Amino acid sequence: MGSLHKISVSVFFVFLSLTASGGDPYRPSAGAGEAGMGYVCVMKNGFWSSFHNQALLADNTSFSFGFNYESRFNIPELGTRTLGITIPSGKASLGALYSHFGYIDFKRDMTGLACGIKLSNKINAGVQVDYFSERTTGEYSNHQALTFETGLLFKPSENIRLGIHLFNPVPNSIRKTYLPTTLRIGAGTDLSKILFTGVEAEMSSGNDLIIRTGFEYEAARNLWLRGGFSTNNNSFCFGFGYLTKIAKLDLGFTTHERLGVTSSISLIFKIH
């Protein structure tokens, strides 16, 4: 009876996670700054954005590492902890990402190794290899999956950036574990030195089209305000970021029309 109860609880939390994430729980929603903008980030420079589109890694000029914690609806069992590292190397930059979701009876870990490179002054490309491990208690077996993701960044002008990202372009017929295929396309512009706006569309297998919009405004020196909206669950987003002498602190909040608020916090350290 105890084992059956654990399995039932695990299934409930998995279902809740699927409902909250739009059916794609495998992509780590890392970055509180990105969360505050509704995850409009496949074209925007940033530490965590580099793991949403690996082509952005090529513009990384500092060795950096960061931590992110997402508290989904203030339910500890739905918490996600993520660690990332970026290493610049000339025209190419490397990155590594580790993400852990779940609790003692249901866990999902993701490890990614990424590389971004400048193909020209106006085009970047990137790729990341991902390994997923899912473990449950009871009679259910564990699952592992290996895939990759890739992205492009176009810079037609100094103030306009276009991003394309494709996750898991691998047929599920050749693997035992199902993984969704996701395509994200976005455009962003710097309307001024202190205001960035962007729009993004996401198409994922088995899900409806998602449209996102977001902005980032530098309200004062080293202080940023952010906002956004996503058609997925009619989610409004907001947050802020502050740069200290040793790290950048970001807070982000996303709403769900039925389930409440998801909060995120990030710390990013740069070593020049």
Structure write-up:
With 272 residues, this protein is mostly beta strands. It has one domain (2-271): Outer membrane protein transport protein (OMPP1/FadL/TodX) (Porin). It is built from 2 helices and 14 strands, in the order H-H-E-E-E-E-E-E-E-E-E-E-E-E-E-E. The protein has helices at 2-21, 32-36; strands spanning 63-71, 80-89, 92-103, 106-118, 123-136, 143-154, 160-167, 182-192, 195-204, 210-220, 223-230, 235-243, 248-256, 260-271. The chain has a 14-stranded antiparallel beta barrel with strand order 1-2-3-4-5-6-7-8-9-10-11-12-13-14. Strand 9 (195-204) and strand 10 (210-220) form a beta hairpin. It is globular and about 55 Å long. Residues 1-23 have low confidence and may be disordered.
